[in-house]
């Protein structure tokens, strides 16, 4: 896979001095080391409105989305790859990030309005999601959380987003253990400097879970894979 030149980094955290902000700093430092350019969509600092209003339903009648949504879509269109840095709250996206997907990935732009559409309308690009979580790798494994997130987010959400391949990284024990937290910063910087999606095993599975198995095809019954997601 050729190295993407321009990365859209979507950052979601309400606190400017959060550990997530430190991860963003390290990840973008890694991107600079790799020679890539990047753009940061800082959803809280930019006051993105995640609430889906009645006016957004115009998309289902073929109408044009508001200008600020089209500007977000233009960011996606400019990107050769997309990275997302966010906490994992209640085993899912924070409301701000969920609303970004709700509003930006609109019908007619990201997907067709159909009972069983073929998939995304967008060109293929790699995605990486970096989630911080206080939960341990062991607790996620015991309860099947990692597999559920893989199906719901990588297959279910990103499957509509023009994905060539993707990786979902769970940074465990965030805020619980200082040495682990420090190690996450080093890891994320190395991730930024490396391939957008790396299928190599995590260096320490007790601290980090990486989900990046091939995604199932959406439009072919029982097909084992879809173009290298």
From TrEMBL:
Span of domain Flavodoxin-like fold: 6-180
The record, for InterPro entries, names: Flavodoxin_fold, Flavoprotein-like_sf, NAD(P)H_dehydrogenase_qn
Q: Which UniProt keywords apply?
A: Oxidoreductase
State a GO cellular component annotated for this protein: cytosol
Signal peptide range: none
Keyword GTP-binding included in the entry's annotation? no
- Stated EC number for the protein is 1.6.5.2
Query: In the record, what terms sit under GO molecular function?
Result: NAD(P)H dehydrogenase (quinone) activity
**Record has Oxidoreductase as a keyword:** yes
Q: Which family does it belong to?
A: Belongs to the NAD(P)H dehydrogenase (quinone) family.
Q: Know the name of this protein?
A: NAD(P)H dehydrogenase (Quinone)
Its lineage reads: Bacteria, Bacillati, Actinomycetota, Actinomycetes, Micrococcales
